[in-house]
User: Which sequence fits this backbone?
């Protein structure tokens, strides 16, 4: 009994001594690599067992034969512990390096995530589950941030283009107004009534530009909740077509309607905003359609119960590279759509803002002879609060 107590005491003392020494070494190496710390932490328990066995052998509590067997087993275990510690720490170090690389790339605006992501996904399964998940989350976060930066750059580019276009569109009429005002003041204009009519027309066009800017700001921002109103798109499309028929006649463009007779195509929304959006689409189609061609307005109910309105023009099409920018603020594209008619490139951007504020979708694609603008609204759409 005394021998057992002595063995237990020596074993406890040996383990405590090795543990204290190991703790001191871990404290000294606390700023070193994970590889050193984890290897040391793995070896400390094995070393403690070896030390306690050696103490008991030296004090003759074990026979020489038994001590030799135990020491061989401990030596083998120590070697195995070293190998396993190396394998585990290598994976952890590789994982920490990938995590560090991912964090570094998060702040690198110039890094393209597309070619890097597949390599990370291939390397992730070799890592522990937790580190693999962190690496995957970092890669996804990086892609999301890259897309966000791209959207910010596009928005900034659109803002700069809008400022440039609006500066030009306002500077030209202001110069004309100044010239007319100076002519009237100096008495060199022989037909004052006509000059005043020109001033009034110029002011109306400038007021239209300002109204478009306000409308765009409203539909792209956070508009206050509006009362829900049942809107018949059949009647709305008919009214828009009637209003724009004189403009179509002036441009020698046929305006054709194709609407269902037994369906009012009802939605819930803001009638004024929807009217403005469709007016912009149809006016844009008339403006860019070649003389002698036609503009079609189609209204249908979709299989999902929503409402689809299509405006098909005869503009000859838009270059594929420019289709994705059609709804950008201030976009004017090719010379045929360059806004020489006084437009500021806001009509289609306003149309998109109105449709999206009604929880709908708007798209454009080339068709034979022109373009097709599709507006799809969910049935009885509710205004966002």
Assistant:
């Amino acid at each position: 009994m005394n021998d057992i107590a002595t063995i237990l005491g020596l074993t406890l003392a040996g383990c405590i001594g090795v543990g204290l020494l190991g703790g001191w070494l871990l404290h000294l190496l606390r700023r070193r690599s994970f590889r050193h710390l984890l290897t040391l932490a793995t070896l400390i328990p094995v070393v403690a067992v070896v030390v306690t066995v050696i103490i008991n052998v030296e004090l003759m509590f074990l026979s020489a034969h038994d001590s030799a067997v135990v020491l061989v087993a401990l030596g083998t275990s120590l070697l195995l512990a070293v190998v396993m510690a190396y394998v585990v720490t290598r994976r952890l170090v590789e994982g920490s390096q990938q995590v560090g690389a991912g964090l570094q790339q998060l702040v690198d605006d110039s890094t393209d995530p597309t070619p890097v992501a597949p390599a990370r996904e291939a390397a992730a399964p070799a890592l522990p589950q937790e580190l693999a998940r962190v690496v995957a989350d970092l890669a996804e976060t990086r892609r999301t941030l890259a897309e966000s930066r791209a959207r910010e750059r596009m928005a900034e580019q659109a803002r700069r283009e809008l400022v440039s276009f609006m500066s030009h569109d306002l500077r030209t009429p202001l110069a004309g107004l100044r010239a007319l005002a100076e002519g009237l003041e100096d008495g060199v204009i022989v037909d004052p009534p006509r000059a005043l009519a020109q001033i009034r027309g110029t002011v109306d066009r400038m007021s239209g530009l300002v109204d478009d800017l306000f409308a765009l700001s409203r539909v792209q921002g956070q508009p206050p909740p509006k009362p829900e109103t049942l809107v018949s798109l059949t009647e709305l499309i008919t009214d828009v077509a009637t209003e724009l028929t004189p403009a179509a006649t002036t441009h020698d463009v046929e305006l054709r309607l194709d609407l269902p007779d037994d369906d009012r195509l009802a939605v819930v929304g803001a009638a004024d905003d929807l009217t403005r959006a469709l007016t912009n689409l149809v006016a844009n189609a008339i403006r860019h359609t070649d003389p002698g061609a036609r503009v079609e307005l189609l209204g249908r109910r979709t299989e999902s119960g929503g409402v689809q309105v299509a405006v098909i023009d005869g503009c000859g099409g838009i270059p594929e590279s420019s289709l994705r920018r059609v709804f950008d603020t201030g976009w004017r594209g090719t010379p045929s759509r360059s806004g020489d008619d006084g437009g500021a490139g806001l009509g289609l951007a306003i149309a998109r803002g109105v449709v999206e504020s009604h929880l709908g979708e708007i798209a454009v694609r080339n068709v034979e002879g022109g373009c097709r603008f599709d507006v799809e609204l969910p049935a009885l759409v509710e205004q966002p609060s």
